[in-house]
Amino acid sequence: MSERISAESPADTVEVHPDTDALVTAAATRFVDVVTAAQAARGSASVVLTGGGTGIALLELVRKSPGAIDWSKLDVFWGDERFVPAGDQERNDLQARQALLDHVPVDPARVHPVATSDGEYPDPVEAAAEYSAAVHAHLTEHGAFDLHLLGMGGEGHINSLFPDTDAVREQHELVVAVTNSPKPPPVRVTLTLPAVRHTRHVVLVVGGAAKGEAVAAALAGADPVDIPSAGAKGLESTTWLLDADAAAGLQ
């Protein structure tokens, strides 16, 4: 059983699940529901994936229970990427392919990975500009992403938007390079808060007691420069999926 708690912002919905398994199941269900609803309404859908243990676990579960998703009519992006060589296990796109994308009939032309450090765009700033062009083209054609999945770090970071950094302060560019990430590897490419806000449904999937303080601060209206997850807002909905430990500090 999940419990709903009203957050301070009326735009936010908070669902609390008893443990990690229930949290991942809820996130996978939300993925399928949003994608199938978007495809029914508009003929296609788009998702922005996140990495991390929970983010990959939910993709594995979607693989097992895909519902009515038409994989040929799905565009796939990533919220951020470690700027490392192709084939590096640190890459979010490689992990997502192993968990889901290599096992379902996606259209390769509609899967949009960030460039690798040993590829056509070996400079992270150039790689960010190339990815920004792909994101901009998609948003111009479709108006918004349908689903943006987000994990969160203990200090409140989402994608590779860390507290008190230039990337989290960015107000115009959709994608930027990060060259001094406090979490290794230091060089990354990330979607910004303006890109996150061009999403119909934003879903944050957060587990663990170590993240409870940042969850509470974000839902209380913290400045996104201090708690980046506070700036993650969807055009139609913003949903926090939490386990009981991450929600322990909420009233």
Helix percent band: 25-40%
Sheet with the most strands, sense and barrel status: 7 strands, mixed
What's the total helix number? 7
Regions with pLDDT < 50 over 5+ consecutive residues? 1-10
Q: How large, in whole angstroms, is the Cα Rg?
A: 17 Å
User: Strand order of the main beta sheet, please?
Assistant: 1-2-10-9-6-3-4
Overview of the structural elements:
- The strands form two sheets. Strands 1-2-10-9-6-3-4 form a seven-stranded mixed sheet. A three-stranded antiparallel sheet has the order 5-8-7.
- With 251 residues, it is of the alpha/beta class.
- The chain is globular.
- It starts with a strand and ends in an 8-residue tail after the last strand.
- The chain contains seven helices and ten strands.
- Mean pLDDT is 95; it is low at 1-10.
Descriptors for this entry?
single chain, 251 residues, alpha/beta, 7-stranded mixed β-sheet, 3-stranded antiparallel β-sheet, 7 helices, 10 strands
The gist of it:
The chain has 251 residues and is of the alpha/beta class. The protein is 31% helix and 21% strand. The longest helix has 23 residues.
